[in-house]
Give the backbone structure.
Amino acid sequence: MNTSKESQKQMRKDFLASKPRSETFAYIVGDGIYINLTNRCTNDCSFCLRNNGDTAYGSNSLWLTREPSPEEVLSAIDSIYSDKCSSFVFCGYGEPTCRFDALVKTAELIKQKYPDKPIRLNTNGQSELINGEGSTSLLFGLIDSVSISLNSANADEYDALCHSVFGSRAYDAMINFGKHCVGNIPVVQFSVVEETLSNEDIEICKEIVAKIGAKLRVRKFISENDQNPEGK
Ligand code: SF4
């Protein structure tokens, strides 16, 4: 490893070591309960909320002291659940599919206890690179809606913006993940951040997503203090 990469790695370690930590495994955003399974992620997006803050929508720090078990997540959900809750969202300060087994088990527990409430997965779409292509089918029947961060109109721009550990393979894998979800998960949506793309690229993204048979959401950049639950 060259010196520059070593020093970047050390800077990242120092950055993470300086963070306030908590056991915020679930938190409320609007009328949804969001689930914080992990701080791991295969991307390092330049617009990531985590680069600028430690919380989201008034939560405690979303940097975890440790990764929770599915049972601990359910217990955290139970402690904040009210009749106002309309859905559950796997989101948090990391990529939920980095803990695929815990994601599936937690979704099963939620479905058993709250069968009428839909579950959404917010993801970078790289699960098939992390967990293998066959893993996607384990989400079917459990996840009611998936929101995949498309972010760019092509693989090169995606790599420049998101810095995936999978490099140039990440973009196509993310698109394929979406294709495998369409028809098997009731709502499949891709998203882009308006401020990071040109209008031309947004049009290209619309075409890509239309071909797959999914929806595109063009969302605003969000900051730590943003209270708009639709911002993420
Ligand atoms: S995929 Fe999400 S959690 Fe991971 S770096 Fe990008 S914005 Fe942050």
Summary: The pocket of iron/sulfur cluster is lined by residues 41, 43-45, 48, 50, 94-95, 124, 149, 162 (CB under 6 Å). DSSP finds seven helices and seven strands in the chain. The first strand starts at residue 26 and ends at 29.
